[in-house]
Amino acid sequence: MRRMLVSRISRRVLAEHHLALSSAFHGRDHDPDGGDHVGIIYTNLRVKDSIQRCVRYLSEEERALGRGPFKKPNIVIDGQLDTEFSYIREHLE
Q1: pLDDT at residue 25, rounded to an integer
Q2: In sequence order, which ranges of the chain are alpha helices (DSSP H)?
Q3: Bridge-partner residues for 37, per DSSP?
Q4: Is the pLDDT of residue 16 over 70?
Q5: What's residue 30's pLDDT?
Q6: CA gap 14, 61 in Å, rounded
Q7: What are the extents of the domains in the chain?
Q8: pTM of the model
């Protein structure tokens, strides 16, 4: 089962990467966040920015669902905040 799931995820990642590279090649590539990326791999991914994006998204979803006042937990991000690395942002988030 594990091998089948890993194989399926691998094919999906390769297909997404191919489609993103093809879109960039044909000039249809647009990134709403303006990040540097090659296909689906962000070359300057910052974990701090991803965490903040997820917190904003969850806050907006709670308000949109009308679940009363959303009390956001206190998020503390500590460490080397300017560290950048290459990774697939969607997999991290």
Answers
A1: 86
A2: 2-25, 47-65, 89-92
A3: 42
A4: yes
A5: 63
A6: 30
A7: 2-92
A8: 0.66
